[in-house]
Amino acid sequence: MCYTALRNLLQGLSFSAKYYSKHNPPQTVCPFSKIGPKKCRILGCSESTCTHRTAPPGSILPCRFFSCKEGTKVLSKRKQNTSKVTSDLLPKSLLKSEQKKWNNISPIYKAMTKRIKEKLEELHNMYTLNSRSPRIRFGENVYFEENGCIFIAKADDGEGNAKILFSVEDLGFSDAFIQRIRISPDQRYMAISLKSENSEEATCTIMKLGDLPVVEKVIPSVFSFEWAANDVLYYTAQKNLKCQNVFMTTFTYQKCTKLVYTEQDARFFVDLYCTKDRRFLTINSNSKTTSEVWLVDCRHPFESPALVQARTTGLIYHIEHRKDQLYILTTYGEPAEYKAILTDNYIHRINLDAYLASSGKENWQLVYALERKTKLVDFEMFSDDCIMFLKNAGHLYLNVISFVSHSVQSIKLPTWACEFELESHPEHTTSTCYFQLSSPVHPPKRFAYSFKENNLIEQAVQEVPIITNCHTTRLLAKSKDETLVPITVFHNKNSKELHRRPLLVHVYGAYGIDLNMSFKEEKLMLIEEDWILAYCHVRGGGEQGLSWHRDGCQHNKLKGLHDLRACISLLHQVGFSQPKHTALAAASAGGVLAGALCNTDPALLRAMVLQAPFVDVLNTMMKTHLPLTIEEQEEWGNPLEDEKCMKYIKSYCPYQNIKPQCYPSVFITAYENDERVPLTGILQYVQKLRKAALDHASRTGKKGNWIPNIILDVQANGSHCDSSWEHSLNE
């Protein structure tokens, strides 16, 4: 992906080390599943953690959602501190009761889970185990990670002559993976962040490279970091899922660390990014609706940061730099979707403060504006061109803006593609941009765009063939207010009588985040076993731009529920399965709409599968002592100060609306160490739901009355987003 700040902005401005909000950040596992490719977690010089899609810039988000990439697990003898959220803070009796129920019921599924596990391992070995980790080209050198070791090779010599710089295991971290890597401009230093899957916080270790690399410094609780100069590193400190302080540390003879920026508003999250040409380091302070950027001139890294544009409510912007001019990606102007803006002065003619003083938003010049209902997925700046990856009506497009010919070329990507990922940090002056395309059932396939040839190139055929027996269908469901809601459907081409086939529906619908539609082995397994997969792109998500999110948050949250109901109803109407064979899957904040539908329309489903679900919106938003409640008010509203908001949240909150009726069966996975979705709320939700189902069965009193299974699996290990392949497989 390109830069952290942009990805955070593009993913709904909910920033986090896993996900921009109580569920971010990306991401990440991704909504619905943590089982993903076993890719080494070396992020390009511009990538963050949870990244969108396969998640977020890593995405480090303070939000409730999954979009996290999987890292490489590194074992050592030292024990890592786990989250402070322990069972001491939980209703012990409820937790003990649920654990006992799980221990009693899980053996029933032993044979089934054994078969599924073997199949997933087979698919994993076939499609992802041998996929190579991302490479970082830095001048004449290439850096990469494999199995917890950092390698360096000469770009022209091939990787057969690569040598190990150091092993993460030797650094003494237990069950840690590499989350982020940044290399100093002169390649004398490498900064890496190491993270445990049981904790939200990462540790930044700075290595002095050479024939025998040594640890120069270790900084705990770091979120993002960038080199401003050869020996000057800026970083953000993370505390209670928040990043509000920026520090500068130096590695010269006069070593020092000092605070350079503090964000006072609890709604804002701070991260760092270097422009593609490394001329400026940007300090990005973002809420979910508003942003503000400060620039550090990398030629003068000790000077105070300069403000680009003071924050204006509802205005989002991000900065890039090319040939002495600032390029701004912003929502300024109508419609309030992303636009590319050029400032009209040249930085080298005047000093930075004077330049910025004359470059306020009133002097911004429009370069390119997105079409209506178009989602800007990613954005990358090159020396003479800019590439935008867009999503419109469910299809992916690549738009190339030439600064030389002042033209825009739009290329429609293959129709089967649902997700894309830029290969790590292409160099600013490169003539080719490489990226991968995938879908839930199509493994990543490599493509390239050549600026010289001005065309798209499909890379050499992979050893593993692209799936050919899966059919992709795109539908539009008419919601309650006549809005058309996109649905993406996958099914086996050879399936007969689709109305009899089991259907798994996916939903998220929050924070302006798209449903994660990257490749997952378990999705392909389901297709092979004649399941139908449907992805409902409801309002509240970001699939059709920023307005799509605005139409599904705060006082519009019920629109997402109406959208979901319309989508499932249409699927049944056109012959994709039927209610008694339909299951609904959601994770994190997706649990709000899934749980709400379970209350209002239980007859549409036979089963519901939730992962770390957010199911008690009202009580959570009433507790301002929780780390993310204040910044989440821009998504859900503030029930403490607005009685109308309180009543509105209460009208759809899953926990608040449980009642005696015939519910579908429910399977929930939760985590003891989850700092974003407290386990207490999930335990209480399960107890109340189970009681309502039993009350209904006892009241109706019919012989053979069906009682749903309501099962909770509380994982002692793992946290809201990150998980090793082995842990995900067992789960």
TrEMBL record:
Belongs to the peptidase S9A family. Residues 518-694 form the Peptidase S9 prolyl oligopeptidase catalytic domain. Its EC number is 3.4.21.-. GO terms for molecular function: serine-type endopeptidase activity. Residues 136-455 form the Peptidase S9A N-terminal domain. Keywords: Cytoplasm, Hydrolase, Protease, Serine protease. The keyword Repeat does not apply. Its main location: cytoplasm. Gene3D superfamilies: alpha/beta hydrolase, Prolyl oligopeptidase, N-terminal domain. It comes from Molothrus ater (Brown-headed cowbird). It is found in: Cytoplasm, Cytosol. It holds the Pfam family Peptidase_S9_N. This is Prolyl endopeptidase. GO terms for cellular component: cytoskeleton; cytosol; Golgi apparatus. One of its GO terms (biological process) is proteolysis. The keyword Hydrolase applies. Serine peptidase whose precise substrate specificity remains unclear. Does not cleave peptides after a arginine or lysine residue. Regulates trans-Golgi network morphology and sorting by regulating the membrane binding of the AP-1 complex. May play a role in the regulation of synaptic vesicle exocytosis. It is an enzyme of class 3 (hydrolase).
